[in-house]
Design brief:
- Helix content is about 60%, strand content about 0%.
- By secondary structure, it is mainly alpha-helical.
- It has one domain.
Length: about 100
């Protein structure tokens, strides 16, 4: 009989790699669903030792972090930035498409 890998265990193992974690979070961002972004960040944090460990590393309040990343959480930019840095990631902005810049005539 063939054994299958546990998806969650495999995902968390993959997310230990910063390149994989960045691609995973970027995919969630591209979906445009804030809830999916929070799930992806929680998964990356779990892969890296959990929210408690991340709170210490990012110098954030553990309780605040759990609340911010709960199902109804809405983290502030400062919290999001701290979490990303604590996971070895950073936020960047890229153009969706090339649009010529026009000045008012």
């Amino acid at each position: 009989m063939r054994r299958t890998k546990n998806y969650r265990k495999s995902l968390l193992e993959d997310l230990k790699d910063p390149v994989e974690a960045a691609a995973y979070v970027n995919a969630a961002l591209e979906e445009g669903d804030p809830d999916q972004l929070l799930v992806s960040l929680r998964n990356v944090a779990e892969a890296r030792g959990g929210l408690s460990r991340l709170a210490k590393k990012a110098h954030l309040n553990r309780g605040h972090l759990y609340k911010a990343f709960s199902r109804k959480g809405n983290p502030e930019f400062r919290t999001l930035d701290g979490v990303l840095h604590g996971c070895g990631l950073r936020l960047s902005v890229v153009a969706e498409k090339r649009v010529p810049y026009r000045t008012a005539a």
